TrEMBL record:
Protein name, as recorded: non-specific serine/threonine protein kinase
Domain of life (superkingdom): Eukaryota
UniProt xrefs under InterPro entries: DUF6826 (IPR049229), Kinase-like_dom_sf (IPR011009), Pkinase_fungal (IPR040976), Tyr_kinase_AS (IPR008266)
Coiled-coil stretches: none
A molecular function GO annotation: protein serine/threonine kinase activity
UniProt xrefs under Gene3D superfamilies: Transferase(Phosphotransferase) domain 1 (1.10.510.10)
Main EC class the enzyme belongs to: transferase
EC number: 2.7.11.1
Annotated DUF6826 domain residues: 96-164
Domain Fungal-type protein kinase: 339-403
Reaction equations catalysed: L-threonyl-[protein] + ATP = O-phospho-L-threonyl-[protein] + ADP + H(+); L-seryl-[protein] + ATP = O-phospho-L-seryl-[protein] + ADP + H(+)
Organism this protein belongs to: Terfezia boudieri ATCC MYA-4762
Length: 525
């Protein structure tokens, strides 16, 4: 674990042990004090829907699970998780019951048992219905510090799942069980998720009541996560990698090669232009790869394209409902691009050179402009720190007859904030219009300028907090554009970076390999 990763990890752990409230004037509270200050409504038992009740046989199975748990030594808390996972899984066939005690996915901590969407092997906050926190039998689970911990988990889920209104978590010491519900009060945009909720505590409950409740709420539209939109032919997801308001992204086995993994992207809602555009670009890149020699490792490859089997020009595929979706699989599966991954100067230089080779092939052979080169859109191979360009939903193919300077047809910008082309920034500021309203001709030089900024962001991350790592339509702030415009001007006259910025603006790819020596300046900075 690198230094920066360690700092971020311990920072997340510290925040996970505190609940900070604006009403305290910036002072932090312990979880126990924060729970005591909550207006929590206490009830004996939640409403249980009869259609989800357990049969007599199932109640007998539950009794056996509880007996096995009670027979475990009291000082071996960790062994409870396997019994609970194995015991509850057959009783909750519509869910994935996951031992998440070693997965730090909520507030930097690891909820013991996660009840997730069916089809997952690992828990993820975008796919978690609710949790079960397990304490030792001697613990008083009705204590504020434990209830405060559960509440913090629920608030993290509340923020991660903005389209869902009701959240729940159980806490148990095997002999007793309490339920905490967290309901969103206000779902209007712009409101803080952790300031618009109310809590209800139920209990003590029995194990049968808990399972009865979970069956009911995971079937209710507001109390559980929406099903994953991936094709069932893919089987279980090895991991839900993440998502956005446009995509859900997961890791699956390659259908024709089960020894290899692929990243599958599926449109979250009805497919739009950006979804179809990315698939068409990826098909074009695959065709170029199949007919080209010396294809660099730095371009992701389309390996699963179910819509293509329906027709050569077909892009939509959905075998779970009537929503027109785009979905496809890519290799390789990579890891996030971070500076602390590189062990020495030489490995970082090879990474930058690899990105330049990928862009050169993309522009000269595939004749495509990426238009969204930034840290979030580069991953590293798991076997080595080799960079790979991903996320081509903003990419655009140049006309076949393009002559230098290589420009695409008029369009608008939709990539990340940090890589908005300089002339687009200037036009938006001058005309006092949103970036997304500026019509311009994309150029290959835009990708090279974005690469210079990517290197700067890696080397000096604190200086780039001004620019959100999001698409422009999620930001659009004038102050951010002014700051970006100032950065462009400062780079042009900077004695260290100015000549590189000039080469990027001129598209001098052969001269830009000097950028690979940027690590010489990291030690000086």
């Amino acid at each position: 674990m690198g230094l920066r990763e360690q700092v971020n990890y311990f920072r997340s752990i510290w925040f996970a042990t505190k609940s900070v409230y604006l009403a305290t004037g910036g002072r932090s509270m312990t979880r126990a004090d924060a729970w005591k200050n909550e207006p929590v409504k206490s009830l004996l038992c939640p409403e249980l829907v009869h259609t989800h009740a357990l049969t007599a046989v199932e109640e007998g199975d539950v009794a056996k699970v509880v007996k096995d748990l009670m027979d475990e030594p009291e000082n071996k808390e960790g062994t409870y998780y396997t019994f609970i996972q194995n015991g509850l899984s057959p009783l909750l066939p519509a869910c994935s019951v996951i031992d998440s005690s070693k997965q730090r996915y909520l507030l930097g901590e690891s909820p013991d048992i996660s009840i997730c969407i069916q089809g997952l092997r690992k828990a993820h906050k975008l796919a978690t219905h609710g949790i079960i926190e397990v304490k030792r039998r001697k613990e008083n689970i009705d204590a504020p510090e434990f209830l405060g911990q559960v509440k913090d988990y629920l608030l993290d889920l509340l923020q991660a799942q903005p389209t869902r209104n009701d959240f729940w978590a159980f806490i148990t010491n095997i002999s007793e069980i309490f339920l905490v519900e967290c309901q969103r009060k206000d779902t209007q945009p712009g409101h803080r998720a952790d300031s618009s909720y109310h809590l209800v505590k139920y209990g003590p409950l029995s194990w049968v009541q808990m399972i009865h409740y979970i069956r009911g709420v995971t079937s209710a539209p507001n109390m559980g996560c929406k099903p994953l939109p991936f094709s069932p032919t893919l089987g279980l997801a090895e991991e839900l990698i993440g998502g956005s308001d446009k995509w859900r992204i997961g890791r699956f086995k390659v259908p024709e090669n089960p020894d290899s993994d692929m990243v599958v992207k599926v449109s979250l809602r009805k497919a739009g232009h950006c979804h179809i555009q990315e698939l068409e670009i990826l098909r074009h890149l695959k065709g170029c790869m199949d007919t080209s020699s010396n294809v660099p490792e730095g371009i992701c490859k389309l390996v699963w394209d179910p819509a293509h089997n329906l027709g050569e020009n077909e892009c939509l595929f959905n075998d779970i409902d009537q929503t027109p979706r785009v979905q496809f699989g890519l290799t390789p599966v990579g890891t996030a691009l971070r500076l602390d991954v590189f062990k020495n100067m030489d490995s970082f230089q090879k990474c930058i050179s690899g990105l330049l080779d990928a862009l050169q092939w993309l522009h000269q052979t595939a004749v495509v402009i990426h238009r969204d080169i930034r840290v979030a859109n580069v991953v590293l191979l798991q076997s080595s720190p080799t960079p790979v360009l991903i996320d081509f939903d903003c990419a655009i193919q140049l006309p076949v007859s393009s002559d230098p300077p290589l420009e695409a047809k008029l369009t608008t910008y939709s990539g990340g904030v940090i890589c908005i082309p300089e002339r687009v920034v200037e036009e938006a500021i001058k005309g006092r219009v949103p970036v997304t309203d500026v019509i311009y001709n994309p150029r290959i030089e835009d990708d090279y300028c974005a690469l210079v900024l990517l290197v700067l962001e890696l080397v000096f991350p604190k200086r780039y907090k001004t620019f959100p790592g999001k698409k422009v339509n999620a930001d659009g702030g004038r102050s951010c554009l002014v700051a970006l415009h100032r950065l462009h001007k400062d780079l042009a006259v900077n004695p260290t970076w100015g000549h590189l910025w000039d080469k990027a603006k001129r598209g001098a790819i052969s001269e830009l390999h000097d950028l690979a020596s940027v690590t010489l300046w990291i030690e000086e900075a």
